[in-house]
Write a sequence for this structure.
């Protein structure tokens, strides 16, 4: 699917029948919709596909979606606007809600969107994610300075210095595997959608600004005020070897979500790839209960 929103165009995939209620899946930072292929395959093999359709999409700057215009610094709130526009596009009736699923960055955006537009979300599924990131307000000045410095450096580098080609996709896969510890199979699945092949070399198609520091991050007090308190039926799924800080945040999660189920299953931060079957069973039980 190609979804032409007013401000940019997103690339997306639909699994199932277009007349069914929607489960919308939001991927993580530097991933793309390919990261949901294992889960989508399980979805199609389960009876969930008899009741719902699953839509996955590339965030701007990822996969085949447009980059944001201009060369300004990026901010996570931009994704909230993208998600709002996308939901209004795929479900234009404001009286109809969808099931929203998010992994990592996608879960951060999904939780903030649910807090802001709870009437649009019937159920919320968070995979290795909880809320917008926060930090001490005293870090504001240094964060702005660091972000502007990084972006200025990106703009002033010679054009060719910003572009590096790779003779083999295996080089990219190995680098990501070493950085993240992910299974090489999953690294390749994600990487091949974030690369383009030109004149016998592979080049990143993803927006280079994604790797630079954002200009602003909220304080805990701001995040707490945003998140408190959701009545949306919510499932939080953590990996046994996932991010430790999420496990320690479960007490806070129960304060933010009135109707919350927490499940811990085998898998790392990308458990939706490595343990798609286990996750699909959890989602099925949660949605069809």
């Amino acid at each position: 699917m190609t979804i032409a929103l007013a401000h940019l165009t997103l690339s997306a995939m639909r699994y199932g029948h277009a007349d069914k209620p929607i489960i919308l899946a939001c991927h993580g930072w530097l991933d793309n919709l390919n990261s949901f292929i294992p889960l989508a395959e399980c979805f199609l093999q389960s009876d969930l596909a008899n009741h719902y359709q699953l839509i996955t999409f590339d965030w701007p700057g990822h996969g085949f979606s447009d980059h944001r215009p201009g060369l300004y610094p990026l901010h996570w709130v931009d994704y909230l606007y993208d998600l709002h526009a996308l939901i209004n596009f795929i479900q234009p009736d404001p009286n109809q809600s969808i099931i929203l699923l998010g992994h990592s960055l996608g879960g951060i955006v999904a939780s903030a969107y649910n807090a802001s537009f709870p009437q649009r979300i019937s159920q919320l599924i968070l995979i290795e994610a909880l809320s917008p990131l926060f930090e001490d307000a005293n870090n504001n000045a240094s964060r702005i300075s660091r972000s502007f410095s990084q972006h200025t450096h990106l703009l002033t580098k010679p054009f060719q210095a910003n572009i590096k080609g790779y003779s083999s996709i295996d080089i990219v896969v190995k680098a990501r595997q070493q950085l993240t510890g992910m299974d090489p199979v999953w690294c390749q699945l994600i990487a091949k959608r974030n690369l383009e092949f030109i004149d016998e070399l592979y080049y990143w198609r993803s927006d280079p600004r994604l790797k630079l520091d954002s200009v602003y991050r909220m304080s805990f007090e701001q995040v707490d005020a945003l998140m408190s308190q959701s009545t949306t039926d919510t499932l939080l799924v953590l990996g046994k070897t996932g991010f430790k800080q999420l496990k320690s945040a479960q007490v806070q999660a129960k304060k933010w979500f009135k109707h919350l189920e927490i499940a811990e299953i085998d898998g790392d931060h990308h458990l939706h790839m490595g343990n798609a079957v286990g996750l699909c069973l959890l989602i099925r039980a949660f949605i069809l209960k």
The mean pLDDT is 95. The CA atoms of residues 79 and 168 lie 32 Å apart. The beta strands are 2-4, 9-15, 22-26, 53-57, 98-103, 121-127, 195-198, 201-204, 233-239, 260-265.
